[in-house]
């Protein structure tokens, strides 16, 4: 059977939650492979709305869900999110939810440092969620992280705590903060360990066995390709690799397991936080897109910046993530526009670019070159077949396919999971 890897093809918030939920009903395993609880997926299942930020979306359907080693895990948030979903009637046990033994932990002082840095950055603010994601990844790379498996060996943690506190105490002193209270930290870890450890498994083994048995694995990405630490709009990016290739390193399955790569993209563009956004509309158009699309972050509640569809950026995402097909979401938000614009290139000084240059100053200066296409007055909301779409909406979709060098695999026309036009089944062999 084919596996599917779902990634965001813009700056995140593309509606991955609905698509993953839609696919997870036919998956045998759903795996998160990067990020932390800075990601946010909203699932609408019947009359219930589930807001997830750490747990894989498959858990709502009862599908075996795993948190891979590429994720940084806040154990206290994990406990609270599990409790919240159980309160909504979702069954969560070690039988249907697993955490990789090698996930680095997000600790309280990571959150402190995230906020202290952001507050001190002035005009250089990145717009982090202040949840400690970046500092936790730094400790992982610095080989001083406390990992999930360490919760079973807290009596042996002394040398690692020495490394950790030597680094962080110096940073904290620079901000006028007291050293880490090691005794308090050990007490907190001891308290939470009993809740976390029953879920801990060698996730790489679970996934390799599932693959050998021909089971369908759905890899669920967080954020979007344009927030990738290597391929995104640096430094206004997240702290992990968000591209599809990370499904391999972030779970231990290997590069052959990614399968069909489904890139999620809105029919327009949004971004949360700071950073370049060439097609941003700080006017009535942007306001209309935001209001109709209910553009507020699932995790932070921050208002999203809105603008026209940027085919240049999505084409880059398709290339660096090896996207097989695009899921185009929120087409219905464009209903009623007299005309629509698509960015087909950038002008920076006297030079035209068909890609976004790497340097932040060039990105900030990039002026979009637009192609205009007629809009439609009919509604696309709730459409479930091509026959339900206005001819001009189909023309818009076809033009996007041409510009991004990638076919549209499915179209989403509302938050409801059934309001989906399927062109090609990502799970097909």
Structure commentary:
This protein is an alpha/beta fold. The chain has 3 domains: 4-103 and 199-257, Adenylosuccinate Synthetase, Chain A, domain 1, CATH 3.40.440; 108-196, Adenylosuccinate Synthetase, subunit A, domain 2; 265-422, Adenylosuccinate Synthetase, subunit A, domain 3 (Adenylosuccinate Synthetase, Chain A, domain 3, Alpha-Beta Complex). The chain has helices at residues 16-24, 75-87, 108-120, 133-141, 158-174, 182-196, 203-212, 246-249, 284-292, 311-321, 360-365, 391-404; strands at 4-8, 29-32, 41-45, 48-52, 64-67, 97-100, 200-201, 217-220, 260-266, 269-271, 305-307, 309-310, 325-329, 339-348, 351-353, 367-374, 408-412, 420-422. The strands form 4 sheets. The chain has a 10-stranded mixed β-sheet with strand order 7-6-5-2-8-1-9-13-17-18, sandwiched between helices. Strands 12, 14, 15 and 16 form a 4-stranded mixed β-sheet that branches. Strand 3 (41-45) and strand 4 form a beta hairpin. The longest helix is centred in the middle third of the chain and has 17 residues, at 158-174. The radius of gyration is 22 Å and the shape is globular. The protein starts with a strand and ends in a 7-residue tail after the last strand. The mean pLDDT is 93.
